[in-house]
Design a protein that fits this description.
Elements: E1 2-4, H1 7-23, H2 30-40, E2 43-45, H3 49-62, H4 64-69
Helix pairs in contact: 1-2, 1-3
């Protein structure tokens, strides 16, 4: 099953996943680079949802979501 993303969602996920991948050792980057690429295409596969969840949780916990997404309250 595929999950479509809006343009805003796609940008936020792609930027966050790419930043997360860049912070990992090279041998652990692939799933998160794939997530960033899929987000840029505005559609995620169901099997990418655990990686998306991991990226989102860490982005929220570390404040990266606000920094990368320029989130406002």
């Amino acid at each position: 099953m595929a999950f479509p993303l809006s343009e805003d969602e796609a940008v936020a996920v792609a930027e966050t996943a790419a930043a997360f991948a860049a912070a990992l050792p090279p041998d652990r980057q692939a799933p998160f680079r794939e997530l960033a690429n899929a987000a840029a295409e505005r559609e995620l596969d169901e099997d990418q949802l655990p990686d998306l969840e991991r990226v989102c949780v860490l982005a929220l916990e570390t404040g990266k979501a606000r920094q990368l997404g320029k989130a406002e309250t």
